[in-house]
Amino acid sequence: MKLSIGIVGLPNVGKSTLFNTLTNNSVPAENYPFCTIDPNVGIVAVPDVRLEKLAEIVKSEKIIPAVVEFVDIAGLVKGAHKGEGLGNQFLANIREVSAIVHVVREFVDNRVVHVSNRIDPKDDIEIINAELILRDLETIEEKMKKLGRQSRFDEKSADQLTFITALKAYLESGELANRFHYECDWNITNFRKELFLITDKPVIYLINVSDIKEERDMKKNLGLKKDDIVMQMDIKTEFEISRLNKNEREEFIKELGLEEPALNKLIRETYKILGLLSFFTVGPKEVRAWTIKKGDNIKEAGAAIHNDFKDKFIAAEVIGYEDFIKYKGWEAGKRAGKVRSEGKNYIVKDGDVVIFKHGA
Fold first, then answer.
1. Can you list the domains of the chain with their CATH numbers?
2. How far is 337 from 131, CA to CA, in rounded Å?
3. Amino acid 172: pLDDT
4. φ, ψ at 8 (rounded to 5°)
5. Interatomic CA distance for residues 198 and 87, integer angstroms
């Protein structure tokens, strides 16, 4: 499953430092399918303390975490939708990612020149969003021409044209497509996906700060909505933390009064907005987290490991993570009646520990 997060923002807001911080925590690519690593792509482990606890119980030699792919996308400037700066490259790359981390500069540092020669995070957000909206409007206008011709003969196209006309008006009001709700009696989800709109992707606004502020006030000051996802991070400090060895890192984090690096929270949040969850396989050779979409059944989960686990699926033994830890493994879990045999329609839950049974 290849799902990626694009890091976007104006020049000199901390994007590259964030990407370098993430790649200091990257993992070897050879363990993961679909991964062709370019200089601006990092495969980053999803922090999950459950893996270590599982490994302790089964005395595993190796731990393989779930991962998220981050893409450092070229900096955007005003006029990007017309090709200004690296706009064409930026907008082409951002269409390929599944979600966005929008880095916004709030910190003041005279040694790092802002592209507009002033620090105004609200305006920066508006510049980026306006460029993305303008590109999406171009996409929509092309689609409307095609649907306009088809709608005279096809009821489905007429319904789609009605929807896209309403969406166009919404974007023209300055709003992002991911905030647009539309009631209808036909399946709109697939059609929206086929439009490949940049502003329909989920977004985390990552505010690069020197001092953490009240989140409610931060949203208000930035002109963001109540439901928008906003995180604050001192990216420079996070980069310094990432370069330390494990012992030094733990000591530094304690000195800062933190439980963990803020970077960990960001990685987990990106995993969450992609609609992903992890299930586990355990054994003496390795404990591994496998990534699937929320709502996937056990056969679909098996495909994350090998197609045979889906195509030749017979059944699966399943125990929840909490029960596996409580009973210290499979055998005591079975005796306590916590291990279940599940068929093909079972919906996998986050943290399930699974053994698959399949035909030869």
1. 4-115+201-273 (3.40.50.300), 128-200 (1.10.150.300), 295-358 (3.10.20.30)
2. 57
3. 97
4. -125, 165
5. 13
**H or E segment to which residue 5 belongs:** strand 4-8
- The neighbour count for residue 220, using CB atoms within 10 Å, is 12
Both structure tokens of 62: 């190796």
Nearest one of 7, 130, 148 to 80, comparing CA atoms: 130
With H, G, I as helix, E, B as strand and everything else as coil, classify residue 161: helix
Helix extents (H) in 196-312? 215-222, 235-242, 246-255, 262-273, 298-303, 307-311
- Cβ-proximal residues to 133 (8 Å cutoff; 6+ apart), any chain: 171, 174, 176, 199
Provide the edge-to-edge strand list for the sheet that holds 340-342: 62-64, 286-293, 276-281, 353-358, 313-319, 340-342
For residue 77, the model assigns a pLDDT of 59
Per-residue DSSP letter, 154: -
Alpha carbon separation from 142 to 79, 87, 136, 219, 240 (Å, rounded): 20, 20, 10, 34, 47
- Can you tell me the distance from the alpha carbon of 129 to that of 179, in angstroms, rounded to the nearest whole number? 13
Residues 23-76: tens digit of each pLDDT: 875 555 444 443 444 558 888 999 999 999 999 999 999 999 999 999 988 766
Using N-to-C axis directions, what is the helix angle for 235-242 and 15-24, rounded to 10°? 20
CA distance 252 to 256: 6
Residues (pLDDT < 70) of the chain are: 1-2, 25-39, 75-90, 215-216, 360
Read off the tokens for 289: 């987290």
pTM of this prediction exceeds 0.85: yes
